[in-house]
Amino acid sequence: MKKICFAVLLLLPLALQAVDGDQDTRCREEVVGPFETHFSRFLEAVRTRDWKIFNEYLDPETDIIAILPDGKIHKGYEAFLETQKGYFSGKTGVFTYKIQTVEESGEIGFGSIDATYEDVGADGVRFRLTLYISFVFKKRQSGGWYMIHDQNALRGKELLDE
Asked: So what's the architecture of 34-159 in CATH?
């Protein structure tokens, strides 16, 4: 009898999960950890151009706000995706970063980084952008996080071929 009760207790969570087919499993906290872990995973997806993982941190129902280094503001999921397609489809640019701040408070996660992006422009000239980027994430009801705000501040631009 004890073995049967023990087996039921072990298998009950799996059975309940199988019944709840609509559960949002993207970036579940129990899979990859607290916000700081999610933030690091998100940044690595950006650095390595991993579109699949990057998209796990987005929610099509959210009016995400992106402020680009040139100051242009893009609002909405589709508009945000348009701002990212060039980077994620590119092969030459190198993105590096250093995490400056990570904060989690209830339903909100905040992270900021110093970043450098090096690439070759359409004119064939190599350049380096130095950026400060801040991100705001919101906690999913099912656990995990999705981004709601991405703000880039251009700190410097230099040409590397001169």
From this structure: Roll (3.10)
